[in-house]
Amino acid sequence: MSPILSLEGLSVRLPPGADRPHALQDVTLSLNANEIVCVVGESGSGKSMMANAVMRLLPQGVDIDAGQVLFEGRDLARATETEMRQVRGAGIAMIFQEPMTALNPLRTVGDQIGEMFRIHTELSKSEIATRILGLLEEVRIPDPRQAMGAYPHELSGGQRQRAMIAMAMALDPRVLIADEPTTALDVTTQAQILALIRDLQARKGTAVLFITHDFGVVAEIANRVAVMQHGLVVEHGAAGDVLHRPQHPYTRQLIAAVPSLKAPPPRKLGPEPILTIEHVSKTYKSGGFLGRGARITHAVKDVTLTLPKGATLGIVGESGSGKSTLARCIVRLIEPDAGAIRLKGTDLASLTREEMRAQTRNIQMVFQDPFASLNPRRKAGDLVAQGLIVHGTPRAEALKRVKDLFALVGLDPASTDRYPHEFSGGQRQRIGLARALALEPDVLIADEPVSALDVSVQAQVLKLLAALRARLGLSMVFITHDLRVALQVCDIVGVMKDGEIVETGPVAQVFTQPQHPYTQALLASVPGREIGTRLV
Amino acid sequence: MTVAVLKLYLRSPAAIIGLLLLFAILAMAASAGWLYPRDPLSLAGRPLIWPFENPRFLLGTDNSGRDIAAQIFHGARFSLLIGLVATVIAVIIGICIGAFAGYYGGWIDNILMRVTEAFQILPNFLLLLVLVAVFGSTITTVTVAIGIVSWPAPARLTRAEFLSLRNREFVQAGRTLGLRDAKLIFGEILPNALPPIIVYASVVMAVSILLESALAFLKLSDPNIASWGNLIGLGRDVLRVQWYVSAIPGVAILVTVLAVSLVGQGLNDALNPRLKGR
């Protein structure tokens, strides 16, 4: 069987001054009908560039400088712009990571899907409408007739991605390129979308080029896998071979970095609690006039949790479950409406702002985004010293302490004079950690501290956290949406849904015998369950 | 970082021209006392000599027989001084009001923004006339008055920047470290909000110079200084025949405003990261 799409020695040149001369170097890859090929790699590996090169949607200054992209006997690398327009959408379709930005917010979903037919076919208006309805039924959008007239913001993230898929499949393309289509989605939605893509692909015999950073997703969906690093395909083979018998050291390292789904042996916990959260609630009201028509959102609803000394309490949930709001309530970045937060007996929720400022010595926070959480105009050393100086340490002494802290979190103590933008994502997260640890807090609140990082960097930061926890006897509240991470890091876990804790208990118990149906659904949706259980 | 901004700045030819013009005007201001040591407002010769007629008065004399070239050189000092001081006053008031309104929000924001709007609904030249009429027209009151009528726009700009920056994670991180509000406002948020404000300051400065000359044209500015505006105001009486009396200082104002605007535009392009690589 000859491949539908094949890349032959494809190279893509980056503009001078980029971190490497080529985004893609001598990439050879083929895609047959009725198969899913996953391209997997970390950020900057060139995997998205490959998708854009096939579609010839490269940014300015970035060009194909060698090789061929053969599609139906034509070399797309040398096709004219007019020829490309006929191929895009009809021959090769693409879906993107963020369906909200890929859809035009001012036009209805049905209108945007219909555009495919209006551009590429001569169908009449009523025929197009029937086709759109059929497509929306095919991607199993609830109430397709209503979805047709809906604007993108009226649909949920998963429904928007379904609409994008409907649009991509409208003209029965022979190749579908999916660029991280489930990365922005919650885990339960991700499982549904993956099932949908697999189902459509099998029914229509489409060839799918699926780009992802997540080995779990690869295990769910791939027939064949290509692993990319620095613009090169380092390993390429059948999914089972690559996942279970990886040959290249980089592939092995990536697979080993995926946290296991087997719980580590439980640690011994002291009985004495250091932080208790009692009946904490936070409600948002919006709109309405004199109390009429106001919308009330219960972001956090009557949450009660206990963190024993030295333990790590995980709070897991999907986006919008209120887990970040809860974390911010604990450190009083958000004022809780009701309830008490007792840290070693002091109720943080009832303190004045001035008293709370003094308490910041005892409770510190690490943020999700290593780019947004560091002031770009301060040097790394200043950022870490800031807390110490505010709490009365003389500047010279604080800067000396900073050097020790840098060493503690595995950064070069000589790099304190550099600005945040000179560090990588993982290093920045270490700076954030050093800043939080500078005050030697009793409790550390970590809000998704590793979810913005690549999997290998994530593994390093998690290892560092575990080492610091053992060394400093830290108690931690660890917020995450990633069940694998929660399982590896936490002792106790609370599962949060719509502002409420639906299940709580020791991590091994919750994950092996989930009681609440929502917990069961979450666990069933974790992609690639066999990865990390059979392997490690 | 500063070196990178400078490099980006020097890539644009318009920005370089602006900078050169500004340096030329500064050089004029600096050399005025040395080239024209006499009081520029003192009588120098016959009135209304055309430019280039008499080598002693390269740019001619005005209707009271004062040397126009001397007035232009000395006027550069006053125009730049008035522009600079008025801008500093406007930007400082604007930053303080905008920062507090944007950072605290709620009723503080409401009150401060209503005050700002009260200033904005009056045409600022009208307000300037009222201030000068009430407090007299010495160079100090004129400068302060120009500063006072120019702050609403920088205030709104600062507020907008603060609104978008105040909930960033690095500000929250500062709060969890126990930083005080004043430190968060001026130490953490303001340095990040500053680039667009600096750029806008160039607009304020250009407008300030124009406002002063407009006042002088109406003979409401300080008559005891050799400002360009005063010279234009004086030339009004002989505008139809000896038009050069008004035109020469007019060109000087035009060039200065152009220079300041070009520098501001260049700064905007250099400080705005979205334009990088274009």
Structure, described:
The complex is a heterodimer of chains A (536) and B (278). Chain A is an alpha/beta fold and 536 residues long. Among the domains of chain A are: 103-170, no CATH class; 279-286 and 295-362 and 444-456 and 479-536, P-loop containing nucleotide triphosphate hydrolases (Rossmann fold), CATH 3.40.50. In chain A, 37% of the residues lie in helices and 25% in strands. Chain A has 20 helices and 20 strands. In chain A, the strands form 4 sheets. Chain A has a 6-stranded mixed sheet with strand order 6-7-8-3-9-10, with helices on both faces. In chain A, strands 16-17-18-13-19-20 form a 6-stranded mixed sheet, with helices on both faces. In chain A, strands 2-1-4-5 form a 4-stranded antiparallel sheet, covered by helices on one side. In chain A, α5 (125-138) crosses α7 and α16 (425-437) runs parallel beside α17 (455-472). Chain A is globular. The two termini of chain A are 36 Å apart. The mean pLDDT of chain A is 88. With 278 residues, chain B is mainly alpha-helical. Helices cover 73% and strands 0% of the residues of chain B. Chain B has a single domain (27-35, 75-273), classed as MetI-like (MetI-like fold). In chain B, 43% of the residues are buried. Classes of the chains: A alpha/beta (536), B mainly alpha (278).
